Amino acid sequence: MVLDVPDPARADPLSGVEAKLRQAPSFFEDAPLVLDLQAVPDTEQFDLADTVERLRTLGFVPVGVQNAGDGHAATALSLGLCPFPAWRSGRQRPNRDPGPKPATEPKRPERENPPPPPAKPAKLLSQPVRSGKRVYARGGDLVAVAPISAGAELIADGHIHVYGALRGRALAGVGGDESARIFCQKLDAELVSIAGAYRVREDIDESLIGQPVQIYLQGEDLIIDPISEPTTTTRRR
């Protein structure tokens, strides 16, 4: 679900949510939620941390923000939320005049063929990732060879490999890499995401739950494909 957060100068961001909960108290319990900040100025006037905490108290599970400015996007990451790109929501954040820009020195001409940045080694998780823990592989892949608990969160700029059961949330390509993939031996995740496109557990075909899968982008669609295990043959001597 997506919550359209109003401008805090005009209304309490959660007044509409609380009204809905009074109508159906248990309907939204433990529901994953994305906050759309299109109408919210990127200033300290809006306290994202307080809003997220209030939502959790109300029984929601905030998983990310979309259409956020740079400041709120950075705050979202520090809170364990994923800042989804604006184009994934189909709406564009309105342009706001930031005021006069400070004078800057002219940029030096770039080399025609700059050397590629050195590849970062994959971040290896050999210890269990407990509920509530968040692990971020900045600039590379994330490889887990230990159990991932429900409520844990794996985030990577590159691919995510889980050699076991994937529970909790897994977000690959968070820097915008649409070629990133998620691989796991047993899918049991609350949320999976590639470069901002995401699916929650309720949107995943039940036939894929508990199966080895790979998750990738095809155009703007998030694809979850089963991985067939290789067959072994034996021969008599």
From TrEMBL:
Q: Which InterPro entries match?
A: CAP/MinC_C, MinC, MinC_C_sf, MinC_N, Septum_form_inhib_MinC_C
| GO process terms (BP) | cell morphogenesis; division septum assembly; regulation of cell division; regulation of cell septum assembly
Gene3D superfamilies annotated for this entry? 2.160.20.70, 3.30.70.260
Query: Positions of the region Disordered?
Result: 87-128
SUPFAM superfamilies per the UniProt record, alphabetical: Cell-division inhibitor MinC, C-terminal domain
Name the domain of life this protein comes from. Answer: Bacteria
The Septum formation inhibitor MinC C-terminal domain is annotated at 125-224
Instruction: Check the UniProt entry and state the signal peptide residues, or none.
Output: none
**Protein keywords:** Cell cycle, Cell division, Septation
Q: Does the keyword Protease apply?
A: no
Compositional bias ranges of the Basic and acidic residues kind: 94-113
Which Pfam families does this one have?
A: MinC_C, MinC_N
Domain Septum formation inhibitor MinC N-terminal: start-end pairs: 18-62
Q: Summarize subunit and interaction data from the UniProt record for this chain.
A: Interacts with MinD and FtsZ.
Q: What does this protein do?
A: Cell division inhibitor that blocks the formation of polar Z ring septums. Rapidly oscillates between the poles of the cell to destabilize FtsZ filaments that have formed before they mature into polar Z rings. Prevents FtsZ polymerization.
Q: Which PANTHER family match?
A: SEPTUM SITE-DETERMINING PROTEIN MINC (PTHR34108:SF1)
Q: Which NCBIfam families match?
A: minC
What family does the database annotate?
A: Belongs to the MinC family.
Please give the name of this protein: Probable septum site-determining protein MinC
Question: What is the originating organism of this protein?
Answer: Rhodovibrio salinarum
